Amino acid sequence: MPAIPLSNSVRRVSHALRDAEQAPDAWSGGLKLLTDTLSVAGAACIIFNKKTGRADWACFSGLSSELESRYIDRFAALDPFSPLLNATPGWTRLLTCLPAPVLAKSEWYNEFVLRCGVRDIIGANLAETPSHFGIVGLHQQIGRHYADVDPILLHSLTESLVSATRSRVNAFSFADKEEPEAHRPPVGSRYFFHICNGQTYVDTAGHLLPSSDAAVAHAVLLAAELSQDEGLRGFAVCVTDETGRLVSRRPIHPREGNL
Q1: What pairs with residue 55 in β-bridges?
Q2: Average pLDDT of the chain?
Q3: What is the reported pTM?
Q4: What are residue 84's phi and psi, to 5 degrees?
Q5: Which DSSP symbol is given to 106?
């Protein structure tokens, strides 16, 4: 595939993101140029700690920038979309990834995303280490459509975004190695994903996840994957917490899927 010529606007964004690799304070300006170039309403880079399920750092531009601290303090732990990006390659749309019934019950979506004036998000996991991962999200304003985003332009900028995000992830991974074990915050809660229909295939290992919303989102994807197995017709993914309380039940529909 021939190389895509870089426009002046792409060069400006790339230069700003290179500055952000050296100086984290430059992220704000880099994201502002990114939103202007892609004609989106906002953008964010978020560094998640895998051990705690929380955000160690975030920078927001555009509609959600005024609530940046609220996201870090409260909504990062309730965010069901970002953990899914850690397991999904490439750029992924929120409204394609998570069904409306899940978002309707999500405090993160209703009290943070919609309150910021954002309807949909395109996100991607751009860098990862054993302890952290970094995502970048592009925010669609309520009433607008992502058909406005030029995929070639986004492709041209992805390499610079990956490099800048990797720099931030590596910085926090190094700090995590230096932090004494006794001072680390507690991990998230463990949720179990049983396959049930009269008889139950018990999940004895479970998954550590930051919130029940994240557990429901994981169950949705698991049910979609299992929908390819005709032998599981009529079964469901039953999510329980550490006390055995049922958190959610997601039916498995072979071929039809659940999304």
Answers
A1: 48
A2: 84
A3: 0.69
A4: -70, -35
A5: -
CB neighbour burial string for 23-39, b if at least 16 within 10 angstroms, e if fewer:
eeebbbebbbbbbebbe
Rounded distance between C-alpha atoms, residue 126 and residue 92, angstroms: 12
Superfamily name and number for 8-178: Transcription factor LuxR-like, autoinducer-binding domain (3.30.450.80)
Q: How far apart are CA 145 and CA 197, in angstroms?
A: 40
pLDDT, average across residues 150-176: 87
Asked if 115 and 67 touch (Cβ cutoff 8 Å), the reply is yes
Q: How far apart are CA 51 and CA 53, in angstroms?
A: 6
Q: Where are the domains of the chain?
A: 8-178, 189-251
Q: pLDDT class for 42, splitting at 50, 70, 90?
A: very high
pLDDT tens, position by position, 170-184: 998 876 654 454 445
